[in-house]
Design goal:
By secondary structure, the protein is mainly beta. About 0% of the residues lie in helices and about 40% in strands.
Length: about 70
């Protein structure tokens, strides 16, 4: 990090990120994921690990299904 001369700027390689969680908000501006959620009696749902991702940065959304094995 730090200041560099604009003539010396070289763009870095594009990074691909994968995030998983419960999609708790979805609109044209932002996608919001909760990494964890739990039911707390009559209080409702408590969430943690909240991350906000600009919608224009999301390439695709895949619904994950739990596999039941015996």
């Amino acid at each position: 990090g730090g200041w560099i001369d604009s003539a010396a700027f070289e763009p870095g390689k594009t990074q691909i990120c994968m995030s998983a969680g419960r999609l708790i908000h979805d609109d044209d501006c932002v996608k919001v994921l909760a990494g964890s959620a739990m039911l707390v009696g009559d209080e409702g749902v408590r969430m943690s690990g909240i991350i906000e991702i600009p919608a224009r940065c999301v390439v695709r959304i895949v619904r994950l299904e739990e596999r039941v094995t015996k």
